Automatic annotation (TrEMBL):
Record key words, sorted: Golgi apparatus, Membrane, Protein transport, Receptor, Transmembrane, Transmembrane helix, Transport
GO cellular component: cis-Golgi network; Golgi medial cisterna; Golgi membrane; SNARE complex
InterPro entries assigned: Golgi_SNAP_su1 (IPR023601)
Function: Involved in transport from the ER to the Golgi apparatus as well as in intra-Golgi transport. It belongs to a super-family of proteins called t-SNAREs or soluble NSF (N-ethylmaleimide-sensitive factor) attachment protein receptor. May play a protective role against hydrogen peroxide induced cytotoxicity under glutathione depleted conditions in neuronal cells by regulating the intracellular ROS levels via inhibition of p38 MAPK (MAPK11, MAPK12, MAPK13 and MAPK14). Participates in docking and fusion stage of ER to cis-Golgi transport.
Name of the protein: Golgi SNAP receptor complex member 1
Length: 233
């Protein structure tokens, strides 16, 4: 839950961070047109906002890294089965998300710094600035489309993770019930060995138990298929 909360915060921060970086050049050009005495890039509010958001994202990335490390320590502890595929898949998914967010942050930050350096070099050459604004408008539109598609994919991933969590909880409940049924079956076998007349009754109970298990398994399978169909609809 802590990892998903941090991932949601990072997702929102990175979207705002990317929008700030892509709109930087056009905003700086508008300020130059409005006033020749506008301060240079280092004193702009956008630069301060960039530095603040970069620090916040780095802190969130550090927290998410710590949470992933704690989850890895838990999976390696003595009390956790080492062959729990669903648990390892969940941990690996969170690691992949952290890696994607880290890569996206560094890429966006590098692009912003490159744009800022280029703005400093361009200076007051209006022809080059207008050409850059035109190209930036096209890139902004493409970036918005990519961000929307990225958000849809993140939502699908979250839904799949919730489905996996439900399946893991169901598996744990089924394991607990299986242990109880084995204990009851052992006691019933003991009684059957002592009282042969009870053997036929036990067989009928076992047949009903198998039938209920098949029905329960079918219901769980249908629910899982419906959730997956809804997730990829």
């Amino acid at each position: 839950k802590q990892a998903r909360q941090l991932e949601n915060e990072l997702d929102l921060k990175l979207v705002s961070f990317s929008k700030l970086c892509t709109s930087y050049s056009s905003t700086r050009e508008g300020r130059r047109d409005s006033s020749d005495t506008t301060p240079l890039l280092n004193g702009s509010s956008q630069d301060r906002m960039f530095e603040t958001m970069a620090v916040e994202i780095e802190q969130l990335l550090g927290k998410l890294t710590g949470i992933n490390d704690k989850m890895a320590e838990y999976t390696n502890s003595a009390g956790v089965p080492s062959l729990n595929a669903a648990l390892m898949h969940t941990l690996q998914r969170h690691r992949d998300i952290l890696q994607d967010y880290t890569h996206e942050f560094h890429k966006t930050k590098a692009n912003f710094l490159a744009i800022r350096e280029r703005e400093n070099l361009l200076g007051s050459v209006r022809k080059d600035i207008e050409s850059y604004k035109s190209a930036s408008g096209v890139n902004n539109r493409r970036t918005e489309l990519f961000l929307k598609e990225h958000e849809h994919l993140r939502n699908s991933d979250r839904l799949i993770e919730e489905t996996i969590s439900i399946a893991m909880a169901t598996k744990e409940n089924m394991t607990s019930q299986r242990g109880m049924l084995k204990s009851i079956q052992s006691k019933m076998n003991t009684l059957a060995n002592r009282f042969p007349a009870v053997n036929s009754l036990i067989q009928r109970i076992n047949l009903r138990k198998r039938r209920d298990s098949l029905i329960l398994g079918g219901v769980i399978g249908i629910c899982t298929i419906l959730l997956l169909l809804y997730a990829f609809h």
